Structure formats: structure tokens, C-alpha cells
Amino acid sequence: MATRLKKILIDFDGVIHRYNSGWLGEGQIPDAPVVDTASGQDAIQWLRTLLQCGHFAIHIYSRRGSDPSKGGIGAMKTWLSRNGLESRYLKRIVFEKEKPESFLVIDDRCLQFKGEFFEPNVIKNFKPWWKEV
């Protein structure tokens, strides 16, 4: 009996792509992969590790992919390939047009809800991790 893989939904900009340059359009992805400051592992190595472990179905989403006519999904695939993700791993990733149901979401622009609502100033002053470094 096959084990069902847990769907992990990963945001592209700010989690995989460093996003130093900000939004330049669907097909413009100029920055390097995010690097884990503690381990030195980059996002490409991390994706490879997740895909190799055999527990997860990796789905990547970004507003880049919301309009297929603008080429954002192709640009993300090209970027991943140019940054070292081998085609055998790339073909196992699903690129979403919108945010689907998943086991877990990994995103740089979120607050984890733990049963307590956030004060307005916490929401107002939120910064993604890459704006704090």
C-alpha cells in the first residue's frame, strides 16, 4: 500500500527566490536563491532534500503563475533550472495558479494563527523576514 504524500505549498518569492529586487513582473526573476543563515544551505538544496526524502508533494505558488499567458510559471522553472535544480526534481514540482488546499504552507508573508487574533498594530507593522535583515 502506497503512502500518501503530504502536500507542501511553498511560496516562490521570499522563500525560494531571494526577492532583493522586489516585483519587476512575472518573468523577471533577477535574484539568487534564499540561503539559510544558520546552515548555509540554499533553497535549491533544500527543495532537493524535500523531494528526496519521499514524504512530500511539493507545490510552488506565486502571483507570477496566476495568469499563464504572462509566462511566470515558465520563468520560475527556468530560474530553478539555472540555479541548479536538476530536471528530475523539477518535473516532480507542481506549479499552482492559485493557492490550493495543502497540509502545510511555507510563506514569508504570514502570521501563524494559534487561536488568538492579532492586534491591529501587529498586522500593521508586519515585515517579511528579508526586510528585517
Description:
By secondary structure, the chain is an alpha/beta fold. The protein has one domain (6-132): Rossmann fold (3-Layer(aba) Sandwich). Helix content is 26%, strand content 14%. The protein is built from five helices and four strands, in the order βαβααββαα. The chain has helices at 43-53, 72-82, 87-90, 120-124, 129-132, and strands at 6-11, 56-61, 94-96, 104-106. Strands 3-2-1-4 form a four-stranded parallel beta sheet, covered by helices on one side. Helix 1 links the parallel strand 1 and strand 2. The longest helix has 11 residues, at 43-53. The protein is globular. The protein starts with 5 loop residues before the first strand and ends with a helix. The mean pLDDT is 92.
How is this structure best summarized?
The chain is α/β, with parallel strands linked by helices and 133 residues long. It contains 5 helices and 4 strands, in the order E-H-E-H-H-E-E-H-H. The model has no long low-confidence stretch (mean pLDDT 92).
Which labels suit this protein?
5 helices; Rossmann fold; 133 residues; 4-stranded parallel beta sheet
Per CATH, which architecture? 3-Layer(aba) Sandwich
| CATH fold category name | Rossmann fold
Question: Can you list the strand order of the major beta sheet?
Answer: 3-2-1-4
How many strand elements? 4
**Helix and strand element order:** EHEHHEEHH
**Helix fraction by DSSP (H/I, runs of at least 4):** 25-40%
**How many separate helices?**
5
- Sheet-strand content, in percent, reads 5-15%
Distance between the termini: 46 Å
Rg to the nearest angstrom?
16 Å
The largest β sheet comes out as:
4 strands, parallel
Structural class: alpha/beta
What is the 3D shape? globular
